[in-house]
Write a structure and sequence with these properties.
It is built from two helices and eight strands, in the order αβββββαβββ. By secondary structure, the protein is of the alpha+beta class.
Amino acid sequence: MISRILCTAFVLCACISTTILCINFKEQQWYYVISTVFSNVSNNDYIDIDLKTAHISRNVYGISGFIDVKRDIPDDAITIEIQMSRSVSGSNNYVVLPFKYKENILYCWLNNMYRDILMPSFGNCSNALQLGNREFKGPLVKKKFEFNKCLVNVDTLPKYLIPAIYKIEFKSNGLAKIYVQLIVRVYNKVF
C-alpha cells in the first residue's frame, strides 16, 4: 500500500516536473543587452556604413545608424560571413562557437538568414529590405537604409543560451570590405 502511494506520488511529481520544464522552454530562457556596435568599411565608393548603440530605456539598447548603398551592387559582387564567439569570464578571451554562417554571396544571405532572423526585427524601426515571401533577386539597388533604435527579435533564436558576453562579427568581401561587430551580454531570465 505504502509503495503504491509512493509510486503514484513519484509518477505525479515526474509529470508535474516534465510539464513545468516544457512550459518554461516554450519561452526564451535568456535576454540580451547590446553593449557595443562597431562598423567599418574599406571602400565607401559602393557602400558606407555607420551603426552604433542607441539607448531606448533602462538597460535596453538598440542599433541606430545607416547603411548607404551608393551604387547598384550585382548579386555576386559581395560575400557575407558571420562568426560568433563567447567569453564567459568577461575578459577578451573569446572562444569561437560553431554558430557560423559560412561565406556566401549576398543574395543567398538575404534570402535565408536575413529574411528569417533580421528582417522581422527591422520592420518597425527602419526602411530595410522587406522581402515578405518573395525571394530577393539582385541587384541590390542604390538606397540609404536608416535604422532607429532597432532591437533583434529573439523568437527565432535558440530558447537557451549560456549567460556570457557574445561577440558577433559580420564580414563581407568583394566590392567593399565591410566589418560590423556587436558585443552582446546574455543573461538568464528570472521567472
